[in-house]
Write a structure and sequence with these properties.
single chain, 176 residues, six-stranded mixed beta sheet
Length: 176
């Protein structure tokens, strides 16, 4: 019995730790990430409101500093930060159709009606491009999507979370 309770608890914890975000990254295999010590943020393409912009930049700076990078005027890396969003339409259909209940035993035929619901919402994404300042070539890119743009309270929590998840992949090849 204890074994089954342990499995149930482990499965519950595993599901609870799943991220609601889709995060991915890519990098130039020829880049030597140990040589990058300084960075400068470029936010020309960060077209979001000032509140969310502060959230993104504060968390990104915090994550970069935790990785040993410092802001500087003559940087090794230029970091371009972009954001966008897209309208998502979710369609949910229920089909009670035939069931295992009703009159006539366990395999009775039943009638049901399909019901369909739709919901529309905006989903946001953040893109972090790291460009080698000397060669002007992209050396690392991190992308995270799944931010609830239409829910201010959710964004307040989600933006720092997604930035941390994006930056968990930098520098590449490091064990988490």
């Amino acid at each position: 019995m204890k074994k089954y309770i342990f499995i149930l608890i482990a499965a519950s914890l595993g599901l609870a730790s799943c991220s609601p975000f889709q995060v991915r990254s890519d990098y130039a295999q020829t880049a030597n990430f140990t040589t990058y010590k300084t960075y400068k943020l470029r936010i020309d393409d960060l077209k979001i409101n000032d509140i969310d912009k502060d959230r993104v930049l504060n968390e990104l700076s915090k994550q970069l500093q935790a990785k040993g990078l410092q802001s500087g005027d003559n940087p090794d890396l230029i970091i371009n930060v972009k954001a966008n969003h897209k309208k998502i339409t979710d369609i949910t259909t229920s089909n009670p159709g035939m069931g295992m209940w009703g009159w006539g035993g366990p395999f009775a035929w039943g009638m049901g009606m399909n019901r369909t619901w739709t919901s529309n919402y905006n989903e946001g994404a953040v893109i972090v491009d790291m460009v080698d300042a000397r060669t002007q070539k992209l050396v690392w890119q991190g992308i995270g999507s799944g931010i609830s743009v239409d829910r201010p309270k959710a964004k307040q929590k989600q933006i720092p979370q997604i930035m941390a998840e994006i930056m968990a992949n930098y520098p590449p090849g490091m064990k988490k």
